[in-house]
Amino acid sequence: MIVRTSDPIYLARVDKWYSVLLTTIQPYLYENGGPIVMVQIENEYGSYFACDYDYLRFLYKKVRFVLGENVVVYTTDGNTDSYLRCGVINESYATVDFGVTYDPAAAFKAQRDYEPKGPLVNSEFYTGWLDHWGHPHSVQSETAVAKSLDLILAYGANVNLFLFEGGTNFGFWNGGDEPPYMTSVTSRDYDAPLNESGDVTPKFYAVRDIVSKYLELPPYPVPPDTLKASYGQTEMMFVSTVQDALSTLCPEGPIFSTYPLAMEDEKIKHYYGYILYRHKLETNIADGELFTKGVRDRGYVMVNQKPMGMLYRDEIIQVKVMGLAGQYLDIFVENQGRVGYGVAMNFMSKGIIYNVTLDGHLLSGWEIYPIHLEYIQKVERSNRFAPEVSISGTLETPSIYKGKINIPNTADQPRDTNLDMRPWVKGQAFINDFNVGRYWPQKGPQVTLYVPAPTMAIPGDNFLFVLELEYSPCSFNTSCSALFTSVPYLNAPPEPDDY
């Protein structure tokens, strides 16, 4: 199917979702005593290639059918006529979005071309921007944001600050962009007026000063920032390799297939996170060449759990392998995040999406294990002393580690904190049963992960669980630990490596 079009397969699913979404928000409409006065259909659709007005009208009619005639239905697009041309239908109200500008008349011209009457609305006034792994931290000065906001409000326009408060891509919910393929970091701090943990920043006060020129401020002080904790070092211990924990992480057992299947395949239906593909070698391999262009996105190749190398999308497509007949060739694949923008949205299958060859021979006979990291707490200590290490010494078998967090048993605990995974390399962190997100401090710019206080409990034991994909300090350092600090670090110099 083609998403964001009137493709009937897609519309059937949109219809089902909108029925749930719209009936959920209906009690909160303004006419029902709630705060919702406007409902947006789609988002920046004029930037999408399809230009399918029938699709937009379907969304509009669905909103009207469920929510009635009193709610304002609107669209949002970039502030040029070229974007609005395919993003607007006559039935809904057209708004625009843009960042810092010192010429509001020019910035709103496109909206006025389509809406000669009615309020000027910047529905996404960008206070910052998102970050991608391996790229510089995005910042936007409070001076520029405040000056632009002042001019927009003086022009009589309406503004929605995007973002006003930063957030977090917990779990596997980070997205990505393409081309080139690049994925968002776990933090959604966004350099917003309120940061990722909800604390005020200098940008907040700069924005507040501007708003006070046009609206009366609330008659009470700004609430204080939440208290943060530095819980110090948490000693970590090796628990198990992924392969030794398969009975726990994939309790339903493998799916058998002649050739690899994508994560979204009807037989798999495992849409996020990680998946392991296993093939039993039929002959001895002394210096074989494993080849595939089908890894989405990052695949760790192992034989008998010993790392051979890494595959990455269309960039790293072959790995030298060696092994004995009867040993397992494993490819452990990470879905690093789907692109949510543009044509690429239609080509976001994950896992292994094409066939795999070894020395030119097509490999058939695969066991496929969807990895359920929600069971990471249940993984028991294996008999293995430590992960296997590659010949080059740069990769370990993807493995699980565990540590107990040192939280004082006092009335003011737990508090928000930040997890610093240096010198760990790349992986996934859990606080108890909560998936905090992906860490990759060597890549940057994000180093620490925001850990909200409600993920922990007092009294009671609190644990950090880690799936380390590449290399842990436990293998080369007498101290194997992770640090909990009160200070976030989101602006480290990024590594130049594209992978």
Automatic annotation (TrEMBL):
**Under the GO molecular function aspect, what terms does this record hold?**
hydrolase activity, hydrolyzing O-glycosyl compounds
Q: Kindly indicate whether the keyword Glycoprotein belongs to this entry.
A: yes
GO biological process: what's one of them?
Answer: carbohydrate metabolic process
Q: Which PROSITE patterns match?
A: GLYCOSYL_HYDROL_F35
Please provide the record's keywords in A-Z order: Glycoprotein, Glycosidase, Hydrolase, Signal
Positions of the Glycoside hydrolase 35 catalytic domain = 3-213
What Pfam families does the record tag this protein with? BetaGal_ABD_1, BetaGal_gal-bd, Glyco_hydro_35
Domain Beta-galactosidase 1-like first all-beta residue range list: 260-371
Check the record and name the InterPro entries matching this protein.
BetaGal1-like_ABD1 (IPR048912), BetaGal_gal-bd (IPR048913), Galactose-bd-like_sf (IPR008979), GH (IPR017853), Gly_Hdrlase_35_cat (IPR031330), Glyco_hydro_35_CS (IPR019801), Glycoside_Hdrlase_35 (IPR001944)
The Beta-galactosidase galactose-binding domain extends over: 398-457
Protein family membership: Belongs to the glycosyl hydrolase 35 family.
PANTHER family recorded for this chain? BETA-GALACTOSIDASE RELATED
Q: What is this protein called?
A: Uncharacterized protein
